[in-house]
From TrEMBL:
Protein name as it appears in the record: N-acetyltransferase
Source organism (scientific name): Siccibacter turicensis
PROSITE patterns named among the record's database cross-references: GNAT
Domain of life of the organism encoding this protein: Bacteria
UniProt keywords, alphabetically: Transferase
Amino acid sequence: MQSSPSASGDLQLRLLTAHDNSAIATVIRTVSAEFGLTADKGYTVADPHLDRLYDIYSQPRHAYWVVELNGTVVGGGGVAPLACSEPDICELQKMYFLPAARGKGMARRLAQQALAFAREQQFTRCYLETTAFLHQAIALYESLGFDHISEPLGCTGHVDCEVRMLKSL
């Protein structure tokens, strides 16, 4: 697993540390509010572990990366085994970026890093859920080779994520 920072302008991509818990939770809450992704709909903002993501993503076969701009966390995303599913399926999770990190290729770079990690961990498929009005995110996932599927996989609890996608690794 790669842990050294890689730069894109002033932006850096690196693995999540325990010190980042509060900052990435704030990013997720801020972006969720911006797009109306409320806790009552089962979006990530409802995750009871949101304030301690490092504890979750430091487990085997889990990883989460943050994007920093001048030392400030402005985005992140991760991958983990898909809950209640076959052991070869992982889930691309919690991809959130503040406006300062958007349009600079960091979401693509982070997703590619996550997919490479998933392959290293012997996953053969990667699943994700999102919502239809996040057009840029869907376009990114399609460009990375994710296909739309009709039925949900696993037990994510994201009841209003009506867009489901799957990619063979």
